[in-house]
Structures are given as C-alpha cells and as structure tokens.
Design goal:
With about 270 residues, the chain is mostly helical. It contains 13 helices and 4 strands. The model has no long low-confidence stretch (mean pLDDT about 95). The structure holds iron/sulfur cluster (SF4).
Amino acid sequence: MAIHSLCSPTPELACFACCPPLRPPGYDHLDYRSSLTRLLSENRGAFLAGHRPSRVIQGFWCPGLGFLDPAGRRVGCLLHPAANQGRDLRGPTGYRDKCHRESCAEARAFDQLAQPPRTRLMELCAAMDSFVFSSRRANPVMRLLALGPATAAAAAELPGLSLAELTAWPWLSRVDPALGWLIGRLVAETGPELLRRPELHGDLQRLVHRLRRALGPRPPLDQGQPLHQVMADQWQARFWRYVLKRNRALAGQTQTWQAALAAACQHFPA
Ligand code: SF4
C-alpha cells in the first residue's frame, strides 16, 4: 500500500504534533499524556454524539482533536475532511485555513522520499501510538526526518536498522537539524554507514568550525538575493543560513561557499 503523508501514513499511525495550531514553544503532547487521554476520549464521545464546535478555539485546546479509533491509538482531527467523507467541519473553530496550511520539516522531507524508504521508516514506527509517534523527543524517526530527505533516505538503506539502534545513535538527538543537508552530502560520498559513527556529532562540529573560519566573519550587512531564491534546495539554504547566519547571498558568492565546503570536507572526519 502506497504511503502518502507523514501526518497519517498508515491506518495504525497518525501524528498530531502540530494540532491544535496554537501551542507554546517546545510543547510535546507526550508530557500531558494522562490528562490529554481523557480529553481526547471526551471529544470523540461528543463528536459521535453529534456535537460540533460552536465557537472559535481559545487557548491551547481544540474540541475537534480526538481519538480517531475506538481503541484510542490514533489521534487526529475529528473535523477534517479525510474523516468525514470529504466534508470539512473545521470552520467553526476559526482555524480552518491555518490548520490547512500547517506543515513541518519532517513532513516535507517525507514527501520527497520514494515509497521504499517511506515504508521502511514507518515499519520502524509500527508499534507506536500517536503520542509517541508525534513526539520529536521520543520518536527518533521524526528526528531523522527533521534532517531532510537525503539523510532519512540513507538511514532507511542501512541493513538491519532497528528502532533500538536508531534511538541509541548519540548524535541524532544532539545535532542541529540544519546540518542534515551536510550529512546527506557526506553520506553521498562515503556511504550510509557513516550514520552509524558514534563520533559523528563532534566530526560535524569540527567541519563546521573549519568552514566558518575559512569564510571569515559575517559582514555587517546581509546583501543580495534571499537564499531560498538563490538555492532551489530548501535543505541546502537552511544549512547555509545556520552556518553563516546569513539570509542572503550576492552573485557568485555561493560558489565561494561551495569551494570552501569542498576543501573543509577533504579532511573529514578529522
Ligand atoms: S507535525 Fe508535521 S507530520 Fe505531524 S501532523 Fe503536523 S504537519 Fe503532519
């Protein structure tokens, strides 16, 4: 069966990390599991009894968020068209357009993967419920996807990769997701086994340090075209924004950056 999205990849899995659309920074549903479980059950019960939201969402809770199945394993939007034969019931919450636009780096990376790596990564999540699947802290597959499609696809290729092994990779919870494009580039040169290197976080820090030193201090003015226009690859633009703390590049400047990166990579992993 083809997998179409990370939000609802299989009949057993669903993510609700971005729902409701108002959340404090760093919020993780998993931290409130017991109280939320009761609220999600109540919302499902009210929805099945025919109640619909009658006023705009206030605070961090939406009455449309509930268990999608009687077993209480999948959490999602009870008002979404996918759950209502195409009818969109989200209007009264006041956030239909915002909910419709909601996305995340993990979902965008997943969209760029071919079916075999999508299937492989979701196999690793098969035993999770929605609380664990959605949690960026508890689910290493989400952390992997945050690095971008190249790294996620490379990990999916690794023979014998298990969820336990992925959870134990020390670098995966420490590395900044913006370095995902660099990891993908290194993996393309050396092979996916690089991801199994316990020292990878330190290796990357040294490489970025060499690169920053080679390119010198940031100029006072950020000049030129926005990086997302200069570079077609959003993951590469994110990498350079992180490394250089710049959002723009002058004509020809990115070639200088690429040359410095190629030179810095020659010494990797030293
Ligand atoms: S956080 Fe990302 S993967 Fe999860 S439901 Fe939202 S857009 Fe989908």
